[in-house]
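User: Here's a protein and a ligand (adenosine-5'-triphosphate). What would the complex look like?
Assistant: Let me lay out the input and then the predicted complex.
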Amino acid sequence: MERVRIALQKSGRLSEDSLSLLKNCGLHIDRSKDQLFCRVKELPIDILMIRDDDILGFVGSGICDLGIVGENVFAEKQESARIVERLGFSFCRLSIAVPESSTYQNLKDLDEKTIATSYPALLQKALLKQGVKAKILDMTGSVEVAPRLKIADAICDIVASGATLTANNLREIEVLLESEALLIRSSKKLCEEKEKTIQRLWNRMRGTLQATDSKYIMLHAEKARLPDIVRLLPGAESPTVLPLQGSEDEIAVHAVCREAVFWETLEKLEEAGASAILVLPIEKMMNCERKERKYERYFEPCSL
Ligand code: ATP
Ligand code: MG
């Protein structure tokens, strides 16, 4: 049986969530700390644990069939891999930052200046787009020290919480790219066996991803308030309405909400007359697609 190979980051800011996504799909990955190659028992899948910088190349060249990589890396390197879906973790952004004490307000202010970065292609694109003539200083790491060393006037780097910038007296002035983890696949044509395995894994992933975004809401309300309440339920279609034992005009409403349920929503529901409001996590979902089948758009068979 042909086994599907998936490239994941060995250790770092992508690896934990990547592994737990696969675990939620029912795949058990036993690995010792130094093991680079893991066989999955449940499906014909092998996992390759590598540096995040190598993932795109491995998938692009067809050594691996699938991979999980940051959008920042995907956008920087021109590889012929394709995005299957955004995965909703490892959020960060590629930003321009300058010393706190400087007066630069945006990228345009950096004309004729030097910008240090590990993302020369993305920076070049942004400079061209905005007609800015800045010099790019290509660095492989520790970009944030460049202004202090007086080798650059600004940096273009990944920012998540901004703590690294603050620690280095830097100020973010412009976001070039918003990034999250991407599931990518090789653009090469795969054999039918592999396609079947990928489709099975993908169905499970879709179920997990949908469940993460979704919540099950239960509440009580007066029958007359039902239309107001349904309008407030985020991303819910046709809620279930049940009678309440011993009450003529009160009902119970159960609904799967496909979008985040915030405290503000619960407060609005309460104002609209809802009581006994419960919000429950959903572990898995199967076959409860909405009409627009969001996750399938990239999955037509590809050829190269
Ligand atoms: P490797 O040793 O595999 O080369 P690395 O040090 O280059 O790892 P990490 O810092 O682990 O990379 O980041 C991996 C990816 O996680 C980044 O490319 C980016 O997409 C995302 N990322 C970076 N910083 C953060 C952060 N602070 N929070 C969440 N995600 C982040
Ligand atoms: Mg790396």
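Summary: Helices lie at 15-24, 52-60, 71-76, 120-130, 163-167, 192-213, 226-232, 263-271.
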